[in-house]
């Protein structure tokens, strides 16, 4: 039996992964025993956390909608709501979904703790809940995401690679994600596991709401505190924040500082092409979204998750939750073709617009 522990920063939950047994063994016995059997005519509630990050509207929503239709012979319906980074609004959206009697919920929580009461409310109403991308607290029935500690470690290792021999004398700034997002704590943990003892962290921030403008303000503060010539690299937890960071660096006249990222956003990929951003983390959103849809449809129909989930996770409030953990890849200028282009995220024409054509030609992206 495979088991890996994922510890999160103080105050957050502990997650453990293991090979999954039967649905009954994994605490999922109600899926086939007590849930009412339904046909293809199901209603799936989809709650996403915000629309600042391109992935949610561009990838996750349409991919989940497409997969639900595919799995239900075009009879299944997806009811969508976006919380726009407002945890209270998201709780209200769950209430609305419960009132409208959806058969199952897919929730990517704005605040993984604040959503717990709403998850319980849905559960009490007989509505199954799939925690999507972020491990929400409460009595969830399934979970799919990426190995978030590995994401952070991948970013940290890439930054060390970019610094090369200069790493031992380097001072960096760490721009972590929002403290309300459990994934951010895991990214931070993974990054520290790679960076601690290898570089000096001059300033570190937990960036409110993941907003690029907040990352920009934090970076301006770091530059003011440390000095223009005293920053050799920046750990950024995602591409959106990397954009704000790079804007601050440019405004201060600072160049050739490697900056990490995550999500393979188009703007992030284009910055990688030009060399403004060193790397991003490519995550297979199709796999994650399709898995969430598969779990949701199975739960709505009262079916077992045995053929879908091969892992388990524990949160602070739920144990042995059936899960699928999707692998990640470090994205640099050297593997753009093998990642985002091969998987159909973007075409070369989308990346290599007139503004970026010369830079694309230089790295052989034609």
The multimeric state of the shown protein is single chain
Measured by DSSP, the beta-strand proportion falls in 15-25%
Q: If you compute it from the alpha carbons, what radius of gyration comes out, rounded to the nearest whole angstrom? A: 21 Å
**Broad shape:** globular
Q: What string gives the helices and strands in order? A: EEHEHEHEHEEHEHEHEHHEHEEEHHH
Q: What's the average pLDDT? A: 90
Spatial strand arrangement across the major sheet: 4-3-5-6-7-13-12
Structural class: alpha/beta
User: Count the helices. How many?
Assistant: 13
Main sheet properties: 7 strands, mixed
Helix amount: 25-40%
Q: Are there runs of 5+ residues with pLDDT below 50, and where?
A: 1-35
Write out key terms for the chains shown.
alpha/beta, three-stranded parallel β-sheet, seven-stranded mixed β-sheet
Explain the layout of strands and helices.
Elements: E1 3-6, E2 15-18, H1 30-33, E3 43-48, H2 54-71, E4 77-82, H3 87-99, E5 104-107, H4 116-124, E6 128-132, E7 142-146, H5 148-163, E8 171-176, H6 182-195, E9 200-206, H7 212-226, E10 233-236, H8 239-251, H9 266-274, E11 280-283, H10 285-300, E12 311-313, E13 321-326, E14 328-331, H11 337-341, H12 348-351, H13 357-362
């Amino acid at each position: 039996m495979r088991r890996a522990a994922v510890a999160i920063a103080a105050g957050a939950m502990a997650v453990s992964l293991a090979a999954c047994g039967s649905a009954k063994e994994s605490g999922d016995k109600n899926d086939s025993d007590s849930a009412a059997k339904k046909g293809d005519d199901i209603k799936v509630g989809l709650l996403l956390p915000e629309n600042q990050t391109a992935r949610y509207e561009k990838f996750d929503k349409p991919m989940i909608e497409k997969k639900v239709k595919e799995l239900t012979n075009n009879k299944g319906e997806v009811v969508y709501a976006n919380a726009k980074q407002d945890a209270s609004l998201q709780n209200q959206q769950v209430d609305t979904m419960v009132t409208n009697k959806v058969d199952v919920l897919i929730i990517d929580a704005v605040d993984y703790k604040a959503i717990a009461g709403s998850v319980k409310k849905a559960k009490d109403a007989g509505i199954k809940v799939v925690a999507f991308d972020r491990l929400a607290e409460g009595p969830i029935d399934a979970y799919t995401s990426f190995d978030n500690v590995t994401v952070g470690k991948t970013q940290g290792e890439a930054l060390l690679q970019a610094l090369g021999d200069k790493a031992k004398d380097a001072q960096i700034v760490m721009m972590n994600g929002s403290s309300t997002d459990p994934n951010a704590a895991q990214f931070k943990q993974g990054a520290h596991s790679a960076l601690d003892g290898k570089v000096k962290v001059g300033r570190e921030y937990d960036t409110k709401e993941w907003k690029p403008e907040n990352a920009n303000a934090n970076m301006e503060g770091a530059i003011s505190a440390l000095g223009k010539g005293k920053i050799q690299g920046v750990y950024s937890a995602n591409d959106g924040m990397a954009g704000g960071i790079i804007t601050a660096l440019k405004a201060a006249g600072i160049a050739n500082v490697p900056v990490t990222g995550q999500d393979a956003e188009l703007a992030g990929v284009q910055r990688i092409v030009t060399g403004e951003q060193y790397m991003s983390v490519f995550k297979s959103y199709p796999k994650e979204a399709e898995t969430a849809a598969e779990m949701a449809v199975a739960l709505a129909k009262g079916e077992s998750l045995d053929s879908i989930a091969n892992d388990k996770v524990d949160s602070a409030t739920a144990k042995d939750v059936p899960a699928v953990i999707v692998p990640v890849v470090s994205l640099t200028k050297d593997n753009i073709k093998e990642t985002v282009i091969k998987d159909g995220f973007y075409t070369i024409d989308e990346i290599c617009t007139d503004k970026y054509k010369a830079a694309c030609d230089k790295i052989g992206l034609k």
